[in-house]
Amino acid sequence: MASPHWHIFDGLTGYEAAQQIMREHQQQLIASEGGEQIMLLSHPPLYTAGTSARAEDLLAGQKAELSHIQIFENTGRGGQWTYHGPGQRIVWPVLDLNRRTPDIRLYVHHLEGWIMDTLASFGIDTERREALPGLWVRRHDIRQPDQLDKIAAIGVRVSKWVTMHGVAVNLDPDLSHYDGIIACGVIDGGITSAAELGHLIPQAEFDMALKTCFEAHFGDGAPMGIR
Predict the structure, then answer these.
(1) How far is CA 41 from CA 16, 44, 131, in A?
(2) Integer Cα distance of 107 and 12 in angstroms
(3) Taking the model in full, what pTM does it have?
């Protein structure tokens, strides 16, 4: 099997259009009519609900300034409510775990590890939290080392051991848009971005770092590499 094809989208891609492309990639991979893909994209402002999302965690209807943000409730991915918008990099791997390792927990672990390594290459140290998928930052920059703020959200779906959805990494989004949800249902942690932490990362450089750091987790000989 060849290495994944990197499908990089220019500008902002509508959520429904992106989902359709992702599903087509997945169905082609299941039918052995196409190869693995990694979709890198950004969306216009929108909120999406995972399979565990609670209606009471959507607050946008109470805030007139957020009424323009679209809402998508039936995404099929795991997790709760999250926000997508300009300044955020979406990473959707469509990978065949049948040819790698058919273990969802191991897949999510290395998905997190891949993004951790990518952010670390720009000087941003992140960590995991038990039972809370995603990546978190200790706020040493504001002298609050016990405060953990999320910089990357993770929500995946796996069908016939082919993956969909993935990671949303905050490079420089409008963080006020998170006021419309209780992000991921978590109330004991905030939201941050690379820019808020003092790191202005050009999207093209971030994409290059993603490609480089992918190999240690999903490349030849890696824990989730093709067997």
Answers:
(1) 13, 10, 27
(2) 27
(3) 0.94
Q: Yes or no: say if 111 and 152 are a contact pair by the CB < 8 Å rule.
A: no
Question: Residues 83-133: pLDDT tens digits?
Answer: 999 999 999 999 999 999 999 999 999 999 999 999 999 999 999 998 888
User: Which token pair is 90?
Assistant: 């979406």
* Catalytic residue set: 184
Predicted confidence (pLDDT) per residue in 1-31, tens digit: 568 999 999 999 999 999 999 999 999 999 9
CATH code for the part of the protein at 5-218: 3.30.930.10
Place of tokens 């050009």: 202
Contact 64, 152 (CB under 8 A): no
CA dist list (Å): 169 to 68, 85, 94, 161: 22, 10, 17, 24
* Beta carbons within 10 angstroms of residue 3's beta carbon: 14
Boundaries of every domain in the chain: 5-218
Which pair of tokens denotes residue 10? 């220019």
